[in-house]
Design brief:
The protein is α+β, with helices and mostly antiparallel strands. 46% of the residues lie in helices and 24% in strands. A hairpin with a 2-residue loop joins β3 and β4.
Length: 153
């Protein structure tokens, strides 16, 4: 192989080097673009999920305060219009479940207990990836007092 390369004219060697470097730069640029696009998609997904849980938390606050599972269930039934949401729960501050929504053909999602999880009042939304699922837990507050949570997967 080295004999073949030595026998090539200098013009062919320069062209081969330029083509090789150009291909390498093209591959690296493609990888950088794919990484940036993946990060942008993930940020958009996280922001959308956080906004959805904030809205549901505001809507469900009265149902949590008055311990009304029927109203909380109606609020969660709006999740049927969200194709990416597999399940959702409304919980009291002590972790007691008030209402639940599960997509009809969703696989079960493993859960962690959130009742004892400390929340930062400046950031009441917690986002995490568990077993290929995005978990969004939104604190529900009424008069600066934690009354419950919205938990979406």
């Amino acid at each position: 192989m080295t004999r073949f390369i030595r026998r090539l004219p200098i013009k062919a060697k320069i062209i081969a080097m330029v083509v090789g470097v150009s291909c390498l730069v093209l591959v690296l640029a493609t990888l950088a673009y794919m990484l940036a696009e993946h990060r942008a998609q993930r940020a958009t997904m996280l922001a959308s999920a956080a906004a959805l849980t904030r809205v549901l938390g505001l809507n469900a606050s009265a149902a949590v305060v008055f311990d009304d599972p029927e109203t909380a269930g109606e609020i969660l039934s709006a999740l049927s219009e969200q194709p990416d949401v597999l399940e959702g729960r409304v919980l009291k501050a002590d972790g007691t479940q008030i209402a639940t929504y599960t997509k009809s053909q969703a696989e079960p999602v493993r859960r962690e207990e959130i009742a004892a999880t400390p929340f930062d009042p400046a950031h009441p939304t917690r986002l995490a990836l568990y077993h290929r699922h995005l978990a969004v837990i939104q604190e529900i507050r009424v008069d600066q007092r934690r009354v419950g949570f919205i938990d979406l997967r």
